[in-house]
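Researcher: Last one for today. Full complex below.
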Amino acid sequence: METLAFLAQGFAVALTPKILMLAVAGCIIGTVVGALPGLGPTNGVAILIPLSFSFGLNATEALVLMTSVYYGAMYGGRISSILLNIPGDEPALMTTLDGYPMAKAGRAGDALVLSGVASFVGAMLATIGLIILAPVLARIAFLFGPAEYFALYLLAFATLGGMSSKNQAKAAIAACLGLGISMIGLDNSTGLPRFTFGNLHLMDGIDFLVAIVGLFAVTEVFVFIESHGRESAIGIKIAKLRIPVRDIMRSGVTMLRASLIGFVAGVLPGAGASLGSFLAYMGEKAMVRDNSKFGHGDPRGVAAPEAGNNAAAGGALVPMLTLGVPGSGTTAVLLALLVTLNITPGPLLFQERPEVVWGLIAALLIANVVLLILNVPMVRIFVLLLSVPPWVLLPGVTMIAFVGIFSLSGSSFDLLLMIAFGVMGFFLRKLDVPAVPIILGILLGNEMEDSLRRAMVISSGDWRFLFSSGIAIGLWSAAVIGFCAPMFLRRLLKRPQALTD
Amino acid sequence: MTHLYSLTRRGALVGAAALAFSAFGLGVPTSSAQTAECIAPANPGGGWDFTCRTIGKIMFDIGVVSKPIQVTNMAGGGGGVAYANVVNERNTDENLIVAASSATATRLAQNAYGGATYDQVRFLGAIGADPGVIVVGKDSPFQTLTDLLDAVKADPTSVTFAGGSAVGGFDHLKVLMALRRVGFDDIRSVKYIGLDGGADAITQTIGGFTQAMTGDISEVIGFLKSGDIRVLASFTDERIPGFEDIPTAKEQGVDVVAVNWRGLYVPKGISEEAYRRWSDALAKVGASDEWAEAMVANGLAPFNRVGDDFQSYVSDVILEVEALSREIGVIQ
Amino acid sequence: MKSDRYFGLFIVVVALAFIASATQIQTSFLADPVGPKTFPFILGMVLAVCGLYVALRPDEEQMRVQSIGKVAFAAAVLVGYAYSLRPGGFLIPTAIASGLISYQISPRVVPALITGLALSVGLFLLFKFALGLGLFAWPRAWFG
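Model: Here's the assembly. Have a good evening.
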């Protein structure tokens, strides 16, 4: 009951014209930022932080604008995943797996509506979860020590091998390449350079965004130029926008399950929306009875990652608000915003600044409804962005990718690196090596290694420490099963198609 | 707070983004004649960022500068990227101030800025300090700092410290200094893990994975109020204002004073007049009510050294840290 | 020979090079039982084993590359663009690079020209005014 009173107070804060306007503006900007390949929620929010200061927004207003952008980007990312097979941002990676095949089968509109609804369900449930569970769930962070985190990361890679199930050795190669790339730069624990070959640009490591834009956007351009539109990947039109009631009904349970998985993944610090959508997709693939169509345009394969990443986005707010530990890259930026606004996140934030927290939560609920309207009936407007002919769109994507990366570092070195990733991605795609594990490797590599080393410091070098808790043992077992099971099951199942198409 | 190598990939981006927008070609034009710039050599959200934003805002609010000060985040190399940039490219820029802290001095002392030395810039002053603290979980058997240090003396493998800075960073050094004061010399056997910031370090300590956390008071306030932790000692001369129930290390017979001061440096090549103008401005901020408020809100203790006084203080600190680091083998 | 065999062997070479350069990593003095070498070392081993596996048990499909020259040309255009963006301002290099890419996809001169110009100006306006990035329009040399 107390919660409801707080929520009412929150709505009183949120239902002012200015806040509503900011929420709507944030939703639109966020959807665009998410839909454009190369611009993701993290840099979208980062770009807008200075703007919010120059507008002179107060704490609640700035936070509402930024989280609307954040949620909006989670919605928007799916649009280019489905239509172009280029994830609009990193958490939308998994949506390409079934979204793009659906679009190629002429069901782009269905896929967009379904994923929009799934996004709504995921984000809504996560926001409700945030309301009810924030104070309780934050304690989960205390159960995860270095050994548990190491096992968690291992699980992510092991099941990734299972996912790109055509050839696990190739998936493992991709993961190792990604992890190897993440080693470049200064070593976190000792500050000593590794694999930098004396190059200053490599000191701070290779940015995962450079890699992701290179491996996806630039590779896509190369593949398209090379195949010369033989098999037109671009310019899928939405014939008719209707509500695929059957698909939505069929994916109802999927959305609920995926939201739950995504939410939990979001709450874990460092895991974030990407892992949320990934685990949601994998979980769903493992749980449904007939998963033979996954990867070929199964609607549930569209609903699961979208519900998962939106739920994770909401979940990631929990540790940020209650512990000051960001659950994802974007929440790390939001955390920075909070601190600059002189708000100290922590267990007491809910009591000390209720107007900020509950105003934010109410605004999130409102933003979600706005986003559903923008992304389902009005999705055509955003699709227009992408339904231009390939000889305009592809150069456009390339240029946006270049400016996006250039704006991050201002160095041509990163641009060259991006092109190198594009060339590498081109050959890897020709060789049926999935690109997703590379990205995951770059993303998680340092944390994974640090977890291992911290665990070994604590145990004074005793490797048994890695298996010393129930959670760790559970995660290790799941990892082993996740990696090995597909090898045996593959013989039984129909040989699935490659991940990248 | 100012954790040295904790630049997560995405975090680094943010800083890099802000950097690109203002410092490089794409940038909003910043160093036009009157607009001053404050470089925070880390991602938004850390101590350096706080220094720039708060001091910059107060300077404008109390009217010592005529235009709002533009804050630029220039992450990388634990502050080394910004340091090199100032030394090499903006050595005569009179409209530039750069946030610094104990971590800057530590890194300089440990030669972690690629050969740069502390006399390549001018230290302007510090007007507040974040006191160092040692923290344990609320169910910890250690009641006093002495309990904890005795346990390490008895068996160094029984206690792991968690901190928000890298191995050899300031959080780590504080513990080692304390242990040396109580006569424990095998410092290399002390177990320390560096995490991405103080909050992570506290989470691990509350979760029981590490036995104690070393950090700054500002990092622990939220957890202290919620009752999840106990602060065993603060590394200050006097008890910290507002936290009078926390005993100092000195009171417990461990003579260590280690604070994370918050201050600024300016390029070496600016005119004497410009240096004085900035140090006066900083002194005025230090004396303002707004700053007093900001200090209370962020758990900073008073620490006022501006101008030449500060310059000599920094060089003393650097010599001390250098000696200690050499002793424990962080530098050769 | 199947393309996977070459790929597998290539990966083995990469892995060995990785392990070799991992041995060059300086180690620290302080208590860290794992150190900065171990993890890269493990990675290199796993990579080598997987590369070997792919080389010995290659997939059936042969890699098909239609026209590598086009990709090489596109990559060269992008590299040139990367180098010219900073000194050359936004408008001119963008117009040239996007025009060339457009022409490669659909070899018609006029649409490619229009695409190049429109993208260059349109994106400039979008980035400069809608998103607030401070781009330089023209070569810096023109303004000293």
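Residues 230-234, 493-501 of chain A have pLDDT under 50 and may be disordered. The longest helix of chain A spans residues 95-137.
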